[in-house]
Amino acid sequence: MYSFFVTHRPKRLNYNALPQEVKTMPEEGLPSGEGRVHGIDAEGIDTDEWNQLMRHLEATIPVYDKVNSIVTLGQDSRWRRHVAKSANPGMKVLEVGCGPGTFAERLAGVDLTCLDPSAEMLAVAKNRVGAARSARSEAP
């Protein structure tokens, strides 16, 4: 069994509502600058920026896996294999930010739920997971 859900744009980050431990964490290796919290500005992302981000991500769908492999120096495939090995048949799995389903399609025999803010990514993931399960003669 598998389910697919579109998530929504996150609401603005309220810096004042963050726990003190988060506000005072060291930012070593993270982008910094005035008004920034660990690489995220204290005001969050507005609707126009979010929509632009979604358009850019959706434009990468045809090359998403290749770009991911290049950016991670090929480690993404190894990470997915490693995590997939720990998924037992019948296990409930929630993949948050599933993108085009690259990881989800590897998961055999699990009760899978995929979340992504992009309806286009989610549609691709649903097709990939369905095709992979069909090829393994698994029930949808």
From TrEMBL:
It comes from marine metagenome. Residues 93-131 form the Methyltransferase domain. This is Methyltransferase domain-containing protein. InterPro entries: Methyltransf_25, SAM-dependent_MTases_sf. Pfam families: Methyltransf_25.
